[in-house]
Amino acid sequence: MAKDSDCTIVFDGKRLSGRADMPLVDFLETHGIDLPHVCYHPSLGPLETCDSCWVEVDGELKRGCTLKAREGLTVTSQSEFAVSARHEGMDRLLSKHELYCTVCENNTGDCTLHNTMAEMQIPIQRYEFQRKPYEKDTSSPFYTYDPDQCILCGRCVEACQNVEVNETLSIDYSMDNPRVLWDGGKNIDDSSCVHCGHCVTVCPCNALMENTMQPDAGPFTSMPQSLKRPMIDIIKTLETTTGATPVTGLSMMDMHWRQPEIKRTKTVCTYCGVGCSFEMWTRDRHILKVQPVVDAPANGISTCIKGKFAWDFVNSEQRLTMPLIRENGRFREAGWDEALDLVARRLIETRDKYGPDSLGFIGSSKASNEEAYLTQKIARLIVGTNNVDNSSRYCQNPATKGLFRTVGYGGDAGSIEDIEKAEVVVIVGSNTAENHPVIASRIKAAQKLRGQKVIVVDPRKHEMAERADLYLRPNASTDLIWASALSRYMFEHGYADQAFLDEWVNKVDEYRKSLEPFTLEFAEQKTGLSRQELIEAAEMIGQAKSVSLLWAMGITQHSHGSDTSTALSNLLVVTGNYGKPGTGGYPMRGHNNVQGASDFGCLRNMYPGYEKVSEDSARERWAKGWGVPKEQLSDKVGEGNFLMVQAAAEDRLKAMYIIGEETAFSDADSGNVHSAFTDLDFLVVQDIFLSRTAEFADVVLPGTPSVEKEGSFVNTERRIQRFYEVLPPLGDSRPDWRILTDLAARMGHNWGYTHPSQIMEECARISPMFAGVTYERLAGWKSLQWPVKADGSDSPLLYTDGFPNEDGKANLHPLEWQEPEEAPDDEYPLSMDNGRMLEHFQATNQTGRGPRIWEEAPGWFVEVSPELAAEYGIEEGTWVKLTSRRDSIEVRALITDRISGHTLFLPIHQGKPGVNALTGEHHDPDVDTPAYKETAVRLEVLPREKGAPPLKHNNFRYGHRTPRKGVEVEVKWARSDYVAPPGHVSNPRKM
């Protein structure tokens, strides 16, 4: 038996050993025994609504989902008592569900209701199905709810209330005709539903179904309703005359007919840094659905609107499918040989004429680890420059700098699981519910179900701020002050972890002395927070046994973002919140592989695994690994992407190679960016769409999205995961790793890679951080969190036995407060905050390619506080002009109390050139991250006819959630007409 066996039960006369305290349903499954059940799901727990899993214990009926395995337990499932109860439960389910499996889109092998019914060999439907007095809800562009198929199991409610914790869905079992309700009775699209898809994922039948499953999921599903309805009626008649067995047999055959046509492939999400993985179901090139699984290491069954539904871009007619070469100011299609020969020749000519540092490479935070590795290998080994970077320069490099200064690794201290375990979670400058929704769900669930305390510090009152136990709204750019004041408070009030500091931390006295200016009085004066608020936050953090602190672009995109990130990490060090479960610093990574792009060497100063290019030993290691003399690799720190653009503007950089990055949209002061790109001698852009950046290119190479290739990503928790090819490349597009391999061969370096696993193998052989990473160890749902030892053991929680510094200790890093580089003044009196929305991603090059996602938030707008609206005479939809020291834009106003005072908020996604027409080139001097969040503007009301409200009236932000403890099955049991199985009921539709 397995090592964790610690109890033996007797089930139907057989002795079975396994882990104690498991639900009987799961315990039996480990032995290949399927106890019938419908409402139970391992990620949801026992709901006790379906009454189909009854067993007998000591003469009493027990539900197999609530019964836990224990030593000596004796269970029978085959007694007449138990069998009758299970059949009665299934009969009640079927009375609420119109069976037409052979023409049902969901008869694809995982319909729990169908499979359970077939396995139980129900001879006939005891209770006659009657249609319910409700119409099918088709209001959502993403999924449909059919009350006539709903069995009231409550899985969707539990998922919404206690997994996603959006708290939109409920069931009122006291109704004459119970059904699933959105916000108590709204249409789906008029509710607070965020279209995360949790409910659809867990639905055990076809009551909730993805619209993409309709009507092409099976051979008989696409028939017109005028034909389908009569067929269903005929089948229902047959069921009541000849019995259900022949009909069930037909549906089983249909289910098996479908299987060869439906391909199920594991992939990893292409959007944010949470790293959700799931199966993608396809039929030919049609993406039927995204199906999360319990085994997915970062997300389990969770998704968000983008991961679940935002895949229309894959088959977009706007996809690039052939290389493009600019001639006479216009693009023409070209073959791969011509395009790659041209690129290779021009890059080599530029290097030979102007020197290696006249070229710059920007790797993609959306491409794979292997593709990031090849990008920097071409730059360093073939061209000879360290001018290589990725989009982390625009967002997370300040956080990485803060972690390097204090604890030593440039990544999350632990896992998402640690964030869930924390007694207190502090969220700073992170709109987690919209930018990292699945992590936000874990926090919301821990708060709701397990009493976790949440502190949110942010100028904007987003959802997590509304849910917080303590919400602090400081003045912009003052976070270093309150964080340092709290560190001082910890020393002065006995909350500093002295034992931890004595054993594991350097510079304690020096750091404590540096805190002298950071009194509560100074913090109160500068931050706008009250003394009481500061003390309350300090007490919550100081008294907690474990604290996890999350931060994102609200901290990093300032002129001193590195210092503020350092201050946050200092606070964790002072309180001993590193190296134990539930603790640590967690800079939330914004792109699916922005962590991996940095990890695998797309940084101006680091080889893969964070070895410095300026250190002789590192250069020697990589030269030896690549089989070249050490002198062939430059020891000069290169330029990051922000400085590359400036170098191009100054004619020092002559050529650039940009892969999958919308630099022309994302870099600060886009007017200067566009001018610099125009002046380049040669620009290559490798992407899946003709992006704004690609419009400046001399050659455009069509890469592929992640679903059309293999590779690996690293998520925000340092988790390396494989993804697999779901679909073949569209047209003549090619996987980016193959393009880079072919290009290198044309530049005289025939590396001969035929699969990304070979690239990973090479990196792991050279880099100690990835020594044990292999594709075999990443197969399927397996993953590894770096650093990974040669034997394959990984590091879910860092710093458990010290810190990766020379003496094994962390460092407290003294800081001084510095004013922001740009602040409001008399000419530009308003502060313009900016950030992401749930519905979109970055420049909308993906989310903007399909009408379903785009229509959720199609227009650009600026959020204006009620008090500022009153001051300027602004109404909802009023056109305003925002002018910074760089440029102006015109947008409609949205009035909301999410912001206050003289601060504005502008989404970063819509509009061309977008928010960066306004932002400037002032930046963090330590890492050259632009200070996007430090943009002063003036506002002018335009004499134009007022536009429509910027957000649709039914946008989820206007919904009114209906929080419940979960599925309130007790209400059903309390009904006067409820009879426990195996007794019969007069109206099972209400049960």
TrEMBL record:
Single biological process term from Gene Ontology: respiratory electron transport chain
Family in the record: Belongs to the complex I 75 kDa subunit family.
Catalyzed reactions per annotation: 2 Fe(II)-[cytochrome] + nitrate + 2 H(+) = 2 Fe(III)-[cytochrome] + nitrite + H2O
4Fe-4S Mo/W bis-MGD-type domain segment(s): 262-318
Listed GO MF terms: 2 iron, 2 sulfur cluster binding; 4 iron, 4 sulfur cluster binding; formate dehydrogenase (NAD+) activity; metal ion binding; molybdopterin cofactor binding; NADH dehydrogenase activity; nitrate reductase (cytochrome) activity
Cofactor(s) demanded: [4Fe-4S] cluster; [2Fe-2S] cluster; Mo-bis(molybdopterin guanine dinucleotide)
Family matches, as PANTHER family: FORMATE DEHYDROGENASE H (PTHR43105:SF14), RESPIRATORY NITRATE REDUCTASE (PTHR43105)
Keyword presence, 4Fe-4S: yes
The entry's keywords: 2Fe-2S, 4Fe-4S, Electron transport, Iron, Iron-sulfur, Metal-binding, Molybdenum, Nitrate assimilation, Oxidoreductase, Periplasm, Repeat, Signal, Transport
Domain (4Fe-4S His(Cys)3-ligated-type) ranges: 81-121
Pfam families: Fer2_4, Fer4_7, Molybdop_Fe4S4, Molybdopterin, Molydop_binding, NADH-G_4Fe-4S_3
Domain 4Fe-4S ferredoxin-type as annotated: residue spans: 141-168, 184-213
Reported function: Catalytic subunit of the periplasmic nitrate reductase complex NapAB. Receives electrons from NapB and catalyzes the reduction of nitrate to nitrite.
Class of the enzyme per the UniProt entry, highest EC level: oxidoreductase
InterPro entries per record: 2Fe-2S_ferredoxin-like_sf, 2Fe-2S_ferredoxin-type, 4Fe4S_Fe-S-bd, 4Fe4S_Fe_S_CS, Asp_de-COase-like_dom_sf, Formate_Dh-H_N, Formate_DH_asu, MoPterin_dinucl-bd_dom
Protein name, entry field: nitrate reductase (cytochrome)
Domain (2Fe-2S ferredoxin-type): residue spans on this chain: 5-81
One GO cellular component term noted in the UniProt record for this chain: oxidoreductase complex
CDD domains: fer2, MopB_Formate-Dh-H
Presence of the UniProt keyword Acyltransferase in the record: no
EC number: 1.9.6.1
